[in-house]
Design goal:
It is built from 13 helices and eight strands. The chain has 263 residues and is of the alpha/beta class. A hairpin with a 6-residue loop joins strand 3 and strand 4. The radius of gyration is 18 Å and the shape is globular.
């Protein structure tokens, strides 16, 4: 029979500091816990904060850039997560420049990765630079992380337009750090209206929560350390990515009512 190829999903953002890497690492942990072979690719060349987030920073020996130059094998560039054997991590390259990534080599590696993993989550650099463009053509789906402020949403619109022009794909939107009180006062837009104005399907809304920050400080992802309602939203995002139908009969709806977060 024909082997089913894995999906490569880019997690991107118009600007930095909106929680993109937190979202990427949290989704990766959630997928691995569900029994999926998952690779988290830190494409943020030179920054490399994802290894810290999933606690493997000291074990990275080789990187994708060295793989592309055939200085190491793919296996040598991959680090297996200590708690979740199905979750692997790969760094694009600490010293590498975005221009070092040759498309032909990237195509070869992307194909190999899609044969090995069910999901490859690419944590893209913020903005619309070369680092994002390197990986765009290899990705099957796109998730844009944004905070509900005007500056961020303007940048989100820019990157959404670029992705649609380059791939024809409609990115999904995840609103992060949504503060219900500010929305009630009319200081930030309702997530549904935001998604409509950007013309992007809304995949999830993660509320402002100290528990996410506390988890991060403890070196944990959302599913490992945040409050139950936040974890639930993240699991729903995972369900939607995997095409699992959402049920409305859960305690979460009773807790939160029908607005905002139950996307």
């Amino acid at each position: 029979g024909e082997t089913r190829m894995g999906r490569m999903i880019m997690i991107a953002s118009g600007k930095g500091g909106v929680g993109k890497s937190t979202l990427a690492s949290s989704l990766a942990v959630s997928l691995a816990r569900r029994g999926m072979r998952c690779l988290l690719l830190d494409a943020d060349v030179g920054l490399r904060n994802l290894g810290l987030m999933v606690g493997v920073q000291d074990r990275v020996l080789y990187e994708l850039s060295e793989c592309l130059n055939r200085r190491c094998s793919l296996d040598e560039a991959v680090v297996v997560h200590g708690s979740y054997p199905l979750l692997h991590l790969m760094m694009a390259g600490q010293e590498a420049k975005p221009k070092d990534f040759n498309q032909k080599d990237l195509t070869r590696i992307a194909k190999t990765l899609k044969n090995r993993y069910d999901m490859i989550l690419v944590d893209a650099p913020a903005g619309i630079g070369r680092g994002v463009k390197n990986f765009i053509s290899h990705c099957d789906q796109f998730i844009l992380a944004a905070t509900p402020d005007d500056v961020c949403l303007r940048d989100t619109e820019k990157i959404a337009r670029m992705i649609m022009e380059e791939t024809g794909e409609h990115p999904y939107l995840v609103i992060n750090r949504f503060d219900r009180r500010l929305a009630r006062r009319g200081m930030i837009a309702d997530p549904k209206n935001t998604a409509l104005s950007l013309d992007l399907p809304l995949l999830g809304v993660i509320e402002q929560s100290e528990s996410v920050y506390r988890a991060m400080l403890a070196g944990k992802t959302i599913p490992e350390g945040a409050d139950a309602p936040i974890v639930h939203v993240l699991e729903n995002v995972c369900d939607r990515l995997l095409g699992v139908p959402l049920t409305k009969k859960n305690w979460f709806y009773k807790l939160f009512g029908k607005e905002g977060t139950h996307i």
